[in-house]
């Protein structure tokens, strides 16, 4: 009996060590692109696209870009309606078909659940919207259905799923940055969004993931401030859905906004890229000076300084971080290979991670669709 117990204990110890010595790495492929334009030119790319997996099909739609001049040169942002559907098989994307949304939308919250993609909030030429959509496929034909509206119009928020409920986290409009989490029970006979929780602070552009059961995790994000620099957050919060408690569980490696992330089923949160706001804060400071000066000559000098700063934007972080929610421990993973986008949505399907299009520098989008293959690797941590 003692020998049997010892063998069992040894087996447990060895299994634990073996598990601890393994971590996920992602091998990136940046060769897949959005379809070229009719004239053969490359797609400009899209910031804030509708993006999600419907089974093994990828939908990329809507989004926004600057088809003419850059914004600092007076260019107008254009909101798109085009949709692109791809087949994902063995980690490889194959383009299938293109169509149109009923209306343009960019910067919504996206949430894939099985064969369904839910999309909430976002914005168009008129500003933030409160519409909520349900997308599915009939063959390769996109089906679009309206669901109950959010309580108020919000863009740059996050949408996640847990226990047959959708949760919309944060967001902003011209009047406010939201500190609310709204909930929609998909099993209710008369579905309606309700205010579920109040966050520790208002936030937009956060990375929000769900364990699909009873926990949400909110990483970083930003809050714009009147007449001062935006706050870029460096906290990771855990929302316990049954109790309603919201607690900070750690700091991020760096303050970060507008990055992407996924929940890995082995109890890890993976965070990709993001904006640490070094250039963003310098631009905000110049905008504040421009708004305050009454000297026309000095104002023009500041405007040109801001334009130069934005033209020379160095791009966003390419770092990938893994957080073990049990051990409360960060581990740096291999960097993203290729252009590292923000203001898009990271997607998970089996062992693949997809990060479609997005913004790679101020005003500049990418036609790249990053596809990563997740695999275990040995490392020296015990």
Automatic annotation (TrEMBL):
Q: Which SUPFAM superfamilies match?
A: Kelch motif
The signal peptide here is 1-20
| InterPro entries noted in UniProt | Kelch-typ_b-propeller, NANM
Which domain of life does this protein belong to? Bacteria
Q: Which PROSITE patterns match?
A: PROKAR_LIPOPROTEIN
What UniProt keywords apply to this chain's record, in alphabetical order?
Answer: Kelch repeat, Repeat, Signal
Does the keyword Signal belong to this entry? yes
Protein known as: Cyclically-permuted mutarotase family protein
Q: What is the lineage of its organism?
A: Bacteria, Pseudomonadati, Bacteroidota, Sphingobacteriia, Sphingobacteriales
